[in-house]
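FAQ: What does a multi-protein file look like?

Like this. Sequence, then tokens, then the next protein.
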Amino acid sequence: MTFAEMRVIRCRVCGGNPHPHKHNGSIVNPYLDRLHPYPFEKLRALFNDVAAPPDYPPVRLSIGEPRHPTPPFIMEAVAANLSGLATYPSTQGGEALREAIAAWLSSRYQLAGIDPATQVLPVTGSREALFAFGQCVIDGTRAGAKVLCPNPFYQIYEGAALLAGAEPIFINNLPDDDFASDFGAIPASVMDDVQLVFVCSPGNPTGRVLTLEEWATLFDLSDRHGFVIAADECYSEIYFDDDKPLGALEAAQRLGRQDFRNVVMFSSLSKRSNVPGMRSGFVAGDARLLKAFLRYRTYHGCAMSPTIQAASVVAWQDEAHVAENRRLYREKFDEVSPVLAPYLRITRPQAGFYLWAGTPIADTEFARRLQAEYNVTVLPGSYLAREVDGVNPGNNFVRIALVAEMAECVEAAQRIARFCSTL
């Protein structure tokens, strides 16, 4: 394309003058104006004039940041591999890490023949990968491009859709429906425009795990309408009995989709191994999609440090610390749930470390008064959802992240109970 030809390209967003030009007074991507404030920005605004009582030490249960101690052997692996800081990392990741991840996938999900060279791609945490994957696979120049998301949801899904030029479509997860997503109820005329479906299983914030039957429905819809499935599975290793959560690739293999056609899953060490600061995860699945994603990431510039790769290898190879992590969460649910059950609508999640608790008053009022009166921070459920058909499925719920140490979680539960007893 010549420079003269480039000058006549019109903006596909507003149809205005050739680039560069201003949208809403500034030379920036106009899609940025469509982004909603992040839930924690809303929370800060909600608490803007709240003075927490000094008699109560703060307990923060609003952010899903693991706070159990990082296993010493992982920290030792970081320290032993600091020489990796002197080397540029490969976007594809080292062979040792890809093989460790493939071995973990084979063991955890009984997957046969995972190719670490073509079906596994290390990423710097699932958050950036989920967002970047949307930019890679969504064709925002296609009229009516849509992305399907659960509701409530992790806001990265919506941001990925909007900044790729697509419209996010939300499917309500309601308590009367066991927080399930009824994929089959979406009109075919809508599904024809869907390019990407984000699935979170185990779900954030509900902790629900998709069944094999639900996966079968989603795969069938993908075959008919041609969309890609991105399965966010970062909570998959926090469960409370021997019934391990079913994964997307595991479901695909059980249903005869050996090539994982149009399916990728995202996982991370953050929750599993208590290393959120390492920013270490992976994407696995359809080799064709991962080839395109690798090409995108080569330009994106987010390769994992060799030092972190070395520590990630030992983390993926060890399950003892993960079992201990599950035990700690299980014990916290055992202690906290009986304290809250007389006052809030709660059920033990299938997996994850959140209580999705129904409140006796509006969720925002509940969170604000709890902060003001007892210095316990929880996240209003309405901040995690969007109104669809006149319903915000997060209304009158709060998300309680049981990430603090046991004593803090129990103390917070007792304060919440005392607060609820005054309502």
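And here is the next protein:
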Amino acid sequence: MRILIAEDERDMNRLISKALEKEGYSVDSCFDGAEALEYLRSAEYDGAVLDVMMPKKDGYQVVKELRESGSSLPVLFLTARDSISDRVKGLDLGADDYLIKPFDFDELLARIRVMTRRRTGQGTSVITIGDLSIDTASHEVRRGQRTVELSAREYSILKYMAANKGRVLSRDQIEEHVWNFDYEGGTNVVDVYISYLRKKIDKPGEEKLIHTVWGSGWVLRDGK
């Protein structure tokens, strides 16, 4: 999934970005609220982590403008402000969660997982399609009784497809969610990774779960 980090403390921004990338997220980062809105308006994200106190536009202003535009993007606020009134203000403006600095990175990752699960209607950390299970907390992928070993990029694509199970995803949608603005790849890179996934997920004799919809893209679902 693709996440935007807007945090003006550059060291903190870098640490958060690296932690999310290690977990398989595609991450874009910026350092002020005006830039954050530009990013959010130019790409489709699955969630945003916003510092409250940022230059140009603070986190409150960013969320206010997002919600006024009709966006339901999940947003988590990071802030050193710990008063009840500050938290209430952020939540009333439309934030989904609030984390006080300093924070534990494991807690941040858990909150992001919960926040993005709400958007997809997923109740637990485990997504199942037929006999395929994907644990988004541990990153364990199983097909029946066997464990499926995936690269970070393969896992990111599978998780995105699983979060949208039953929905046909185009090449552009997958590319936009799994790679960030720095990506400079070939036009067939998604096709190549789908091929890798098929070899690992759909073994001979197993029910086919990754389906091609010619002219449209791919869908992850059980059944023919």
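Q: Is there any per-entry metadata?
A: Some entries carry free-text notes. For the entry above: Helices lie at 10-22, 33-42, 59-68, 84-93, 105-120, 152-163, 171-178, 189-201.
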